[in-house]
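Today's session is about reading a structure prediction critically. Students often jump straight to the picture, but the first step is always the sequence itself: look for stretches that repeat, for charged clusters, for runs of hydrophobic residues. Only then move on to the predicted structure, which in these notes is written as discrete structure tokens rather than atom positions. Here is the chain we will use throughout the hour.
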Amino acid sequence: MTTASPRYDGLRLEQYDGAQADDVAELRLAIDQRIDALLAGSGPSDQLTKAMRASALSAGKRMRPLLLMLVARDLGCTSRALVDVACAVELVHAASLILDDLPCMDDASLRRGKPAIHVQFGEDVAILASVALLSRAFGVLSQAQDIQPATRARLVATLAQTVGEQGLVRGQFEDLHGGARSPEAIATTNELKTGLLLGVAVDMAAIICHADEQVAQQLRAFALAAGQAFQIKDDFLDGKDSAVTGKDSGKDAGKATLINTLGRDEAKRRLAACLLEADRCLGAAVGANGRTRHFVSQLFAKEGKARRFAPELAKAREARPSVQLAELRLG
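Below is the predicted structure for this chain, in token form.
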């Protein structure tokens, strides 16, 4: 049986205004505290547990669990189960990053500014830690309290579909074995690798909130557009110094990315279009003043002077001055 974080008494979200940066930080702290408790392990000498914790508790934005919780808040849900459902999504994300970095996959030595899990603990421990994180995620979700059994079954099924052979696994396979591909095929791979976990976060929020199908469709469309935008942004950042990005640079040099296929200018235009579409769909789902919109805009914001990508985006911003998602700095 799972227990809620004592600091937040089950995380009563009505006490917090997710539009404020300090309150988002509070939600992130609740997520980190809960993951810390869920991965307590059997002791400091347990290498498997140490690897699981190193991945799940490493410095990251916690974008997916925060997105789930803020969408649910915008839709009027304050269930005590939200923090556990959000943590289950983050554990799946952590497991996927371990696998992505393996020598037989993307062969990355850095993740979030630190040695990748397979570098720290060895490939065998890394693979086992990923499997254990996946198992823990489904265990947490299946035992989440304050959720009707039918709703809990839908959540488990939704997360399972996201991980499986038509989800994250398929996206990684296509990324490794796709070869030369069309822009449309690249976009599909981007959806599977990046958009799916964003999509499952908002899908699960909609399920918990018993949102109608129109809202659920708008949320899925938002996740699809936002996932494409995040992947294109990462492709632009791939060539930057690893000290800035916290990741190995140049890993996409031989891959079929939209930048490599279409060129930087067209990739920027596609990025701008994705950002505007994401904002439109999210506004339609949670309202013009939704807390989630503010949070997503901050994910794309960078310290220092912001930069517009293309004249088309500048025109769009003039026509829609409320759009803040486009404040992404590509350097």
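Discussion point for the tutorial: The radius of gyration is 19 Å.
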